[in-house]
Design a protein that fits this description.
Shape: elongated
CATH superfamily of one domain: Tetratricopeptide repeat domain
CATH topology of one domain: Serine Threonine Protein Phosphatase 5, Tetratricopeptide repeat
CATH class of one domain: Mainly Alpha
Structural class: mainly alpha
CATH architecture of one domain: Alpha Horseshoe
Radius of gyration: 36 Å
Helix content: over 70%
Largest sheet: none
Strand content: under 5%
Number of helices: 45
Distance between the termini: 127 Å
Length: 762
């Protein structure tokens, strides 16, 4: 008994320990997380499911089952890029997971990877010849590739494989409706067959409604959508489709009534009560949308999407303080919410704080890498810092993830314009037209691209079509005027600008263009009077004051220009171009201290703008503050090491004020490479060679500078010194005498006399 008791005493702890070890094993923990994820997935809690599946994956990173579950969850959350990655990993680990292969093929087709989708469908069918879903994927892929005959035959084969499945008739009907040419009779029959097979589903009614709407059979479409609402009163899609029909036929009041009823009758369904506000956003009625979402935010304070949308609308309305309050409240409840971080990043962008915006946006994208809007705004933040390569990369990722994001396409187009890359601009404009056909920028950029490639006829054709499409917009007329201006057809250009102004008297591009045309055609006085009248009509428009100031500069009236620019800056204190124009005007008036203050102010608002530092450095040079000039040029080169102006000017300062001669020579070479036709860069490089003792290299550069600007005293002086070092005393004295004659009382004249005197002594 003692032995038995002792054995039992020792055995019991071992059993307990074994049980604990089993319970805490990685596999058990994995199964626990999977079970929790499955439970959340079934309950529609996809974010929570994602977390649980992610923890399971940490315990078993090569599990195809977990990758597949993650892929399914991302599909439910519409995070397509992440779904694609997880499903791709699934089939890499488990090629015979045909459900994953099918889902991956459908994603490839949706992402315009048509050939890849077709090949995946063929792979599935090779192993599962009777898989109707794979057969329909093949059909849809061939349709996307333009192989309509094959697509329709393959769709019929899919139905032969499973003639009792309503969804297959829907797919074939859609193909027949979209075919080239369409087969409307057969399409309608297939939609009705789908309805007969599944009379309790509203999907066939939607398909019929869309088909009738496409055929402009408005009454039939209305009936189909109303039947869908009656069949499933809780269907948000049915009500949205009916409202969309009313918008399409020009009955917005009836559409809004449908959406208002959805909000009232389905008041517990977020998708329903958001519909009206979202319709305003889609139609570009942001003021109405803002009012609607303000009311929704008050009624549904826990609806994160409503709060986020409200904050976004506040940002777009430039009501930044109110938006900041909303975002702060969102982040109290969900500090790491990616969308809230994107909103906060936008606010910081608006506040000219890109250095603070960038890490927030990067943090948001770390958790939601397929957030196209986040990539777009990260690109904007980089562009504010003049980091255009990073900005372009973010915008390209944005359009890859969401081809219909017109804002990102427009941003890419503007980069192409700045680089004068007209072929690239043409490609971007075509993508913009294809993915956002309602965005007029696509047509305008295309016209610009063709015009700059010498194809004015194509540009005119597009703009004329746009003129007919948007008869009340000034935009087509402005662009037609610019086309005529490029052709020097001044009368036509003036006519188009006037037509643009008849549609929008405040269109600044039309005002500026008309004034430019008047000047180009020799009517400067008329241009001045025109701009003066515009300013008198709208005296607080900074853009008009900038135009007036530039006209004053052209007519050599810098004092009046200063007054115009100064008022523009008072009206818009953060308008960097206005501040720079004011500073340059004051510099021309020898108001160096004021100019320096203005340039410093501009550099604080645009800390990556290299030309501002170059202007500022030149003003420091003008007042003899060499240390500040040197520091300023060094700041410019820290941002853009190959900036020729900054390199040239810094090299000269180093040579004149005790800097490293070898560093100066390197900088002078940079300046000369960037400014090969500028006499000043020739003189600076020559002066650097002179200081290193390379007189035979220096002299030709000085000769080039003197030839370009014969009356420049410094160039003559330097050339005379170089001839002296080369023992060509006669030519040296001749050049030094010419230097003295330019300004006999200047310090350089005194130095030239001393140089001549030393030559006499030798």
């Amino acid at each position: 008994m003692l032995t038995s008791t002792r054995f039992f005493r020792y055995f019991l702890p071992l059993v307990l320990l074994s049980t604990i070890l089993v319970a805490c094993s990685p596999n058990a923990r994995k199964q626990k997380f999977l079970a929790r994820g499955d439970q959340d997935f079934q309950a529609g809690k996809y974010s929570e499911a994602l977390i649980s599946y992610g923890r399971a994956l940490q315990l078993d990173p090569r599990s195809p089952e977990i990758h597949y579950k993650l892929g399914q969850t991302h599909l439910k959350m519409h995070t397509w890029a992440s779904a694609y990655q997880e499903l791709k990993r699934t089939v890499d680990l488990q090629p015979q997971n045909w459900k994953a292969q099918l889902a991956l093929g459908e994603l490839e087709l949706a992402g315009s990877k048509r050939q890849e989708a077709k090949e995946r469908a063929l792979l599935i069918l090779k192993n599962n010849p009777k898989d109707a879903d794979a057969q329909m994927l093949l059909s849809n892929a061939d349709a996307a590739l333009g192989n309509w005959s094959d697509a329709l035959a393959e769709g019929k084969d899919a139905i032969d494989m499973a003639a009792d499945r309503s969804v297959l008739y829907l797919s074939l009907g859609r193909l027949e409706a979209q075919a080239k040419p369409p087969i409307p009779k057969e399409a309608e029959q297939n939609f009705k067959k789908a309805q007969a097979l599944d009379p309790q589903s509203d999907a066939p009614l939607f398909a019929l409604g869309e088909f009738y709407q496409q055929q402009k059979r408005w009454t039939d479409a209305e009936k189909a959508f109303k039947d869908a609402v009656q069949l499933n009163p809780k269907s948000v899609t049915a009500r949205a489709s009916l409202a969309g029909l009313y918008f399409a036929v020009g009955q917005p009041a009836q559409a809004e009534q449908v959406l208002s009823e959805a909000k009232e009758q389905l008041s517990k369904d977020p998708a329903a009560y958001r519909l009206l506000g979202e319709s305003y956003i889609i139609r570009g009625e942001n003021a109405k949308a803002l009012t609607e979402f303000q009311a929704l935010a008050a009624k549904y304070p826990d609806d994160l999407v409503v709060r986020q949308t409200y904050a976004q609308l506040l940002i777009l309305a430039n009501r930044i303080d109110e938006a900041s309050t909303q975002v702060a409240e969102i982040m109290k409840k969900s500090p790491q919410d990616p969308q809230a971080l994107v909103l906060k990043g936008q606010i910081l962008e608006r506040q000219n704080k890109p250095d603070e915006a960038i890490p927030l946006l990067q943090q948001a994208l770390k958790s939601t890498p397929d957030n196209a809007w986040g990539h777009y705004h990260l690109g904007l933040a980089f562009s504010e810092k003049s980091e255009m390569q990073q900005a372009e990369a973010q915008w390209r990722e944005a359009v890859r993830l969401r081809p219909g994001l017109s804002e990102a396409w427009v941003a890419l187009a503007r980069i192409a314009v700045l680089q004068s890359d007209w072929r690239q601009l043409e490609d971007i404009s075509k993508n913009l037209q294809q993915n956002s056909p309602t965005a007029i920028e696509g047509y305008l950029f295309y016209a610009t691209a063709r015009m700059n490639q010498g194809d004015a006829a194509s540009a005119e054709k597009v703009l004329t079509a746009l003129e007919q499409k948007l008869p009340n917009s000034p935009v087509p007329y402005i662009n037609l005027a610019q086309l005529r201006g490029a052709q020097k057809r001044w009368n036509d250009a003036e006519s188009y600008y006037k037509q643009a102004l008849a549609r929008d008297p405040n269109a600044i591009d039309a005002i500026a263009g008309l004034a430019a045309v008047q000047i180009a055609s020799g009517n400067s006085a008329e241009a001045s009077n025109f701009i003066a009248a515009q300013v008198a009509r709208n005296p607080n428009a900074a853009a008009l004051l900038l135009l007036q100031g530039q006209l004053f500069l052209q007519s050599k009236q810098p004092t009046q220009a200063e007054a115009a620019f100064s008022k523009a800056v008072d009206l818009e204190p953060k308008n960097v171009p206005a501040i720079v124009l004011l500073a340059r005007t004051r510099a021309s008036l020898d108001q160096s201290e004021k100019a320096i203050a203005d340039f410093k102010r501009a550099s604080e608002l645009a800390p990556k703008d290299v030309p501002i530092y170059v202007y500022l450095g030149s003003q420091y040079e003008k007042i003899g503050d060499w240390q500040s000039a040197r520091d300023t040029y060094q700041k410019a080169l820290a941002i853009q090491p190959d900036d020729a102006y900054a390199a040239n000017n810094l090299a000269y300062i180093l040579l004149e004020h005790g800097g490293d001669v070898n560093v100066a020579l390197t900088l002078a070479h940079t300046g000369r490479r960037g400014l090969p036709n500028l006499p000043n860069s020739a003189d600076t490089l020559g002066w650097a060679y002179y200081h290193t003792g390379a007189y035979s290299s220096a002299a030709p550069l000085f000769e080039s500078a003197v030839k370009a600007v014969p009356d420049n005293q410094t160039y003559r002086y330097h050339l005379g010194l170089a001839y002296g070092k080369l023992k060509d005393i006669a030519r040296a004295k001749a050049e030094l005498e010419k230097a003295i004659s330019v300004d006999p009382k200047s310090p350089i004249a005194d130095q030239a006399r001393q140089a001549i005197s030393s030559m006499k002594e030798s």
